[in-house]
Inverse folding.
């Protein structure tokens, strides 16, 4: 029996040794391959986190000094968050501690300074950019197309290369360091080249993995052959090993069952401890509540005793009052009626006196305000008349010397032009042009001073006026290929001459202030508004729309001022008084004028005439 044990022990030991050698050989082969892969992967992951931190270091944020913590967000189930959190424990960004946050959905991204996302999780970079726009969030992507993100990375060997979209970064208000620009990929050709290089490296790695797999297969074949030899030589050992294996399996099952029972017991024990702790806490809470209830009960008992004493005293007082009530009830009713009557008389007197005093005071204040308004109105009317008379006289008196200057310039040009050199002739031309502009300005000023004087309003057919203006502008319309579209225009109550000048100025400006390469299109329409403020009958709102050069919004306040020009005379002729005429005409009719405009697309002038 002892000999059999020794033989079996030797055979088992020999089999165990052979199996151990084979397993050691296989494990060593796998460990070499694994160590090569994992070491390279660890280097890439480390550099991956370093690059993201460097981007945060070399980009400038607005109000960065106000941040307590620099926050980095990772989009999707990317394990890069582990490396970034590990790096955050050792490194800061511009002196700020770093916090790393994971986001599952783009809509949840907020309150961070940098967002990292990998293309392998199929997030749309356009959607991400639209959601983080204006939030001061730097978007760092990996393996996306060229120039689609703010900063885009690609793995090249054991390192990374990147390209930056300077325009997007600047639009978000970031500043970029020169070193970040220096090392960035600047063209899509280089970026495609990196992709090609990465694909070649990937193919090379795949080829090496294929060779390693072939080597592993060969080693597995050798192991199988060794196993077959062992099986063929040691059938007896297999039988004994099977029995031992069954026993080991049985023992293992018992061990697993024991561990499970132990684990369940420990979990049960832990649950019981937690329950015991909770019960203890609840008992303490109940005890504290009982103490409070006792105190409250004692207080209630004291209050009850006090109330009983009060009730006894109240009953005694009620008996006394009942005896006294029968004696003074008649006198009390009489006194009450007299008091109410006296109160009503006093209140009525006070109200009458207060109303009289208030009415007298308000009447006096109203008279004083009316006198002040009349005085101001009289002064304003007098000043307006003086200003209009001054403008008319000044403009009229200026025409006489101006006509003399124009006449003498004409005589000089006709009789002595051959005696002037080129400079003299050019000077005469400048003087003549200047005198003509002066005459137009004076005529415009005279016309401006006369506007609004007439109050002889009649019913005016604006459709007829527009047709007459189209006939007057026939040459200009044909020259510029201009088109005037007229909607349903109503009849209004006003001055026919002034309304004609109003529409003529607006249509003329619409045609004049249009690019030469574009045919002017003028659209005139009207809309009835019944709920206009201070206009019980409502107003007609007219619009004159064009497709011209437009007016910048910064000129909104000066566009209706007299002699205000927004362009040089060489480009657009005119005196700068036309829109001032329009404003004065609309004001004299009790309306308002304004405009909307988009530079390069056109303008729309609106004015109202009361119905």
């Amino acid at each position: 029996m002892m000999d059999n044990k020794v033989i079996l022990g030797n055979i088992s030991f020999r089999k165990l040794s052979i199996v151990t050698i084979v397993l050691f050989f296989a494990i060593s082969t796998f460990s070499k391959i694994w160590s090569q892969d994992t070491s390279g992967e660890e280097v890439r992951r480390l550099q991956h986190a370093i690059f993201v931190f460097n981007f945060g270091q070399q980009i400038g944020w607005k109000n960065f000094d106000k941040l307590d913590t620099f926050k980095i967000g990772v989009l999707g189930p990317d394990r890069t968050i582990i490396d970034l959190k590990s790096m955050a424990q050792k490194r800061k960004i511009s002196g700020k501690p770093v916090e790393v946050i994971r986001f599952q959905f783009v809509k949840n991204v907020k309150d961070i300074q940098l967002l990292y996302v990998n293309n392998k999780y199929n997030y749309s970079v356009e959607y991400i950019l639209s959601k983080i726009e204006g939030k001061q969030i730097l978007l760092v992507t990996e393996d996306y197309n060229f120039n689609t993100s703010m900063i885009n990375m690609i793995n090249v060997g054991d390192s990374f290369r990147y390209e930056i979209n300077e325009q997007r970064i600047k639009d978000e208000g970031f500043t970029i360091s020169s070193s970040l620009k220096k090392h960035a990929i600047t063209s899509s050709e280089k970026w495609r080249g990196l992709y090609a290089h990465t694909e070649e490296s990937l193919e090379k790695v795949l080829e090496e993995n294929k060779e390693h797999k072939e080597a592993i297969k060969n080693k597995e074949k050798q192991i199988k052959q060794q196993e077959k030899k062992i099986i063929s030589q040691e059938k007896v050992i297999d039988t004994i090993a099977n029995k031992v294996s069954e026993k080991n399996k049985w023992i293992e099952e018992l061990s697993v069952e024991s561990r499970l029972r132990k684990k369940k017991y420990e979990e049960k024990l832990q649950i019981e401890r937690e329950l015991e702790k909770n019960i203890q806490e609840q008992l303490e809470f109940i005890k504290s509540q009982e103490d409070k209830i006792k105190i409250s009960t004692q207080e209630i008992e004291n209050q009850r005793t006090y109330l009983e004493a009060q009730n006894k005293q109240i009953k005694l007082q009620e008996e006394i009052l009942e005896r006294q009530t029968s004696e003074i009830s008649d006198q009390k009713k009489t006194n009450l009626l007299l008091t109410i009557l006296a109160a009503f008389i006093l209140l009525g007197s006070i109200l009458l006196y207060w109303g009289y005093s208030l009415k007298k005071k308000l009447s006096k204040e109203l008279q004083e305000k009316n006198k002040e308004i009349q005085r101001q109105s009289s002064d304003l009317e007098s000043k307006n008349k003086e200003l209009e008379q001054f403008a008319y006289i000044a403009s009229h008196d200026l025409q006489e010397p101006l006509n003399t200057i124009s006449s003498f310039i004409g005589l000089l040009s006709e009789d002595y032009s051959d005696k002037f050199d080129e400079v003299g002739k050019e000077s005469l031309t400048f003087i003549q042009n200047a005198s003509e502009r002066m005459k137009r300005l004076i005529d415009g000023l005279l016309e401006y001073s006369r506007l609004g004087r007439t109050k002889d309003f009649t019913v005016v057919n604006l459709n007829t006026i527009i047709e007459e203006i189209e006939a007057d502008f026939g040459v200009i319309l044909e020259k510029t290929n201009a088109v005037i579209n007229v909607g349903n225009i109503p009849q209004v109550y006003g001055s026919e001459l002034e309304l004609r000048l109003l529409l003529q100025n607006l249509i003329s400006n619409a045609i004049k202030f249009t690019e030469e390469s574009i045919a002017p299109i003028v659209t005139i329409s009207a809309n009835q508004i019944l709920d206009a403020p201070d206009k019980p009958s409502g107003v007609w709102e007219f619009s004159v729309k064009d497709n011209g050069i437009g007016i910048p919004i910064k000129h909104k306040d000066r566009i209706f001022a007299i002699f205000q020009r927004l362009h040089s005379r060489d480009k657009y002729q005119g005196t700068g008084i036309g829109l001032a005429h329009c404003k004065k005409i609309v004001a004299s009719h009790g309306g308002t004028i304004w405009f909307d405009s988009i530079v390069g697309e056109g303008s729309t002038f609106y004015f109202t005439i009361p119905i």
In short: Residues 235-415 form the longest helix (181 residues).
